[in-house]
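idk why but the lab printer keeps eating my pages so im just putting this in chat instead. protein + zinc ion:
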Amino acid sequence: MKRQMIIYVDMEGASGIFEYNSSAVIHGSSLWYGYGKKCITSDVLAVCQAANECTIDEILIYDGHYAGEMENNIIVDELPKNVKLFDTWKRCFDWRRIRGQADLEPFGLITVGQHARYGETDAYFPHTIQSPPIKALYVNEKHIAEIGMCAYSFFGTKYIANIGCMASMKEAKEISQNITCIPVKDKKNKWEPNYTETFPIIKENIIEAIDDIKNKEKIEIYEPCIFKMELCDNYKFREPEKIAWKGTFSEKEAYWEAVSVEMGLELFNFVRKYIINE
Ligand SMILES: [Zn+2]
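predcted complex ->
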């Protein structure tokens, strides 16, 4: 059977990017072009090389940082030939379409360049999709941000590893206890290595993680799903007169119910449209 690896890439948790050079994550900035892209490409390349040494047949990547902008953050030409990118409109978070482009039973999921949820301490650039205005997002009472959105879209798939800011490991571990955590920076312990230092760390640990696939767990979620979104200070929901889905709004919280994770995540975009300044 073909062994297909799914990789979800964000950038705030990439190697080599910290507060002092934070504009490296700003899509289109000169530091993003000259440096940020190299950082995240290095991390992703380490994962791809490890996967290929473990005889993975195909690697499918979703590069989701600054979704809505056409240009990828990763430099695709520097990656192995068996890498393919998920195709969504302007790289938007279209999880239903992303899931549909992958195999029914991918070999596993690896998340790269990941940051912590909004409100986490000792974190580089923590946020929940867009914070403000979003303070927190829950699905079936699980507190999720980008890592959770991706992982639960791929439920039933084994979650192999999370790579990124040390503080992002918390969300990843809540999804799967047994994943391999590969921090590339740690604010609490002031560990700020460059991307060439973390490259071999990522590669070695991913090889080990893939070799240990029998001990990795499938991502689980029960459907139907209840979603909840909470808002930051200075933002509230403009309560609509009528909505076309099952849900409720209060000033600071919205709930909605969906028969599947995919549909719930799609409704997320509609709920978001009702956020206004207080
Ligand atoms: Zn991002």
